[in-house]
Amino acid sequence: MIRYLLTFGFVVAFISASAEEGRLTRTQYIDQWKDEAVRQMAIHRIPASITLAQGILESGDGNSTLAKDANNHFGIKCHSDWKGKKVYHDDDAKGECFRKYETAHQSFEDHSVFLKKQRYASLFELDIEDYKGWAKGLKKCGYATNPKYPDLLIAIIEDFGLDVYDKEGLRLINQGTVEPTVTRKQRKKAGGIFDRNDRLPDVTVSNHREIALSNNKIKFVTVKDGDTFESIAKELDMMPWQLWKYNELDKKSTLTAGQMLYLQPKRNNGSEDWHVLADGETLAEVSQRYGIKISKIVKKNNLKSGETPPAGTRLSLRKQLKQ
């Protein structure tokens, strides 16, 4: 009996050990995917530390059912633009649709492309090594509902020193020798979702709203009757606060039909050198016309905050005037 129990105990221990061998530790996950995260940083300008930390958190160190069965390391759901394979799992609701990839490399690529939507445009204004800013920005842009999401990412990055891979990514950026990990053929097979073209589509699928490019190379839409910040943001997969911020408007501002509404931050310099202020014209109107921040117009022309110069004033839009 003792011999039997010893043998049985050995078998159970062997099975348990074998089961554990099938699971990746956090260190193993990092070793396996750090190079891909660095490569993604060099191509898409997303901190490698953020990519790794999100992959760790979203996939349970690569051990989640979604990561194993669908190569989906970031929990990205199907959405209307997904044309690839699908799997279904219970998440916020029962039987939700998630993207399925042929390889985990495609998951990393799709994650990068996903973050280049207009919703996350403000992240790319941050320093590429500011992982804390990126972590907080992801939450602010609506990537996750967990209020502790930024803290969880930051803790993973700092506990495992993942910011060292940001420095490696910067080195590759400076070298400019990085090759894509996903081929055009693979992107096409997956329904085009891996196209790294950073531009928004010229026309949205929902209601054929044209997205144009200003003279200062900033994407914008023209407001229609009945539009609100919320309705436009929902249509373009953005957050309402981004529209307020990019257009230097108050959230209580009323939109009017025909109004130009920027989808990206305004520039520090205008598209032209000068503008002569018309009668009754405000600096805000000039700012919106040329896609230059109001604060920059004020500074370049040595004005006081809130000051509106008289009609006929020649405003510099590119160079700093001497006092």
Provide an overview of this structure.
This protein is mostly helical. Among the domains are: 130 residues, Lysozyme; 51 residues, Roll (Membrane-bound Lytic Murein Transglycosylase D, Chain A); 43 residues, Membrane-bound Lytic Murein Transglycosylase D, Chain A, CATH 3.10.350.10. Helices cover 42% and strands 8% of the residues. The protein is built from 13 helices and seven strands. A three-stranded antiparallel β-sheet has the order 3-4-5, with no helix packed on it. It has a two-stranded antiparallel ribbon with strand order 1-2. Helix 10 crosses helix 11. The protein is elongated and about 75 Å long. The chain starts with a helix and ends in a 7-residue tail after the last strand. The N terminus is likely disordered.
Write the layout of secondary structure elements.
Elements lengths: L1 H20 L4 H19 L3 H12 L5 H6 L14 E5 L6 E5 L3 H11 L16 H10 L8 H11 L4 H12 L8 H6 L22 E2 L5 E4 L6 H7 L4 H7 L13 E3 L11 E3 L6 H8 L3 H7 L13 E3 L7
Antiparallel strand pairs: 1-2, 3-4, 4-5, 6-7
Helix pairs in contact: 2-3, 2-5, 2-8, 3-7, 6-7, 10-11
Mean pLDDT score = 81
Query: Which shape, going by the Cα principal axes?
Result: elongated
End-to-end C-alpha gap: 99 Å
C-alpha Rg, in Å?
25 Å
The first-level CATH class of the domain at 24-68 and 105-189 is given as Mainly Alpha
Main sheet strand line-up: 3-4-5
Q: How are helices and strands ordered from N to C?
A: HHHHEEHHHHHEEHHEEHHE
Number of helices in the DSSP assignment: 13
Share of β-strand residues: 5-15%
**Largest sheet features:** 3 strands, antiparallel
Percent helix: 40-55%
Number of strand segments:
7
Please tell me the CATH architecture of the domain at 24-68 and 105-189 by its name.
Orthogonal Bundle
Low-pLDDT windows of residues: 1-19, 180-207
- CATH fold assignment of the domain at 24-68 and 105-189: Lysozyme
Class inferred from helices and paired strands: mainly alpha
